[in-house]
Amino acid sequence: MSAVETLISDTDVTDESVSADGCHPLFRDIPSTVEFNKLRKRLLRLTRQSLDDFSMVTPGERWLVGLSGGKDSYALLAVLLELKWRGLLPVDILACNLDQGQPNFPKHILPDFLNKYGIAHRIEYQDTYSIVTDKVPENQTYCALCSRLRRGNLYRVAREEGCSALVLGHHREDILETFFMNLFHGGRLASMPPKLVNDEGDLKVLRPFSYVAEEDLVKFADLMQFPIIPCDLCGSQDGLQRNAMKAMLTDIEKRMPGRKETMIRALGNIRPSHMLDRNLFDFAGLMISSDK
């Protein structure tokens, strides 16, 4: 077991340890209710489990945390800062918002929020909105190209700031929806990995919320009273395929509670010999014993 794994494993997050009198400044104005403490404890535990399971942490690194102004990225920043404050995350954290030039984007909200709590940050302006609206036909959604341009700029900022990882707020439902989109529309079994290295090989992309339920993030953002910025300022909505996957998963969970948790466990329990991929399993070399 590594030193980081020992650090993460040996310190339990109890209800008492997350009380309001000992916490990161982000949590000091939040009512200390039983509901909130249980939710906060669960988010901390699941995030630490993901950091541990996928060997995300190298002590002394600097992480760039993408902050869009949505519930997921606010929650990610808060949980990571809390873990760092408790000595459970030995990395430097820099929050970064990429202002992409969408109409009516409230430029003051994120700087005001970050400055209020003394959070190190960088606000980067790049007018990718004009590029997207120029390249994408009016009747199509902007999300795919917008996302690629955003990721490229965040990679650049990470390099400029000496960061070794870009950390994103994708959660359990994002991973499951992507899996089913690839299954139904891409003809492959693939999803969002909790940890990957970019094509250039110089940056990690980390998703510490891989085990966290979106429902919990909705509740957490509401209780924390984050100043949420809508994700559809450009007038575009997410693709119909992803919306259909979300609706399907919601229906399955409603009819069979607990299925989402089972599905996310299944993505970490793959048996190549029981699939059909000849690149992952040597079916040609699978022979019965000659001495039988």
UniProtKB/TrEMBL annotation:
UniProt-annotated binding residues for [4Fe-4S] cluster:
143, 146, 234
Top-level EC class, please? transferase
Primary localization class, coarse:
cytoplasm
Q: Which residue numbers delimit the tRNA(Ile)-lysidine/2-thiocytidine synthase N-terminal domain?
A: 63-228
Q: Which CDD domains match?
A: TtcA-like (cd24138)
Tell me where the sequence motif PP-loop motif sits in this chain: 68-73
Q: Which SUPFAM superfamilies match?
A: Adenine nucleotide alpha hydrolases-like
Q: What is this protein called?
A: tRNA-cytidine(32) 2-sulfurtransferase
Q: Which organism is it from?
A: Paenochrobactrum glaciei
Q: Which gene encodes it?
A: ttcA
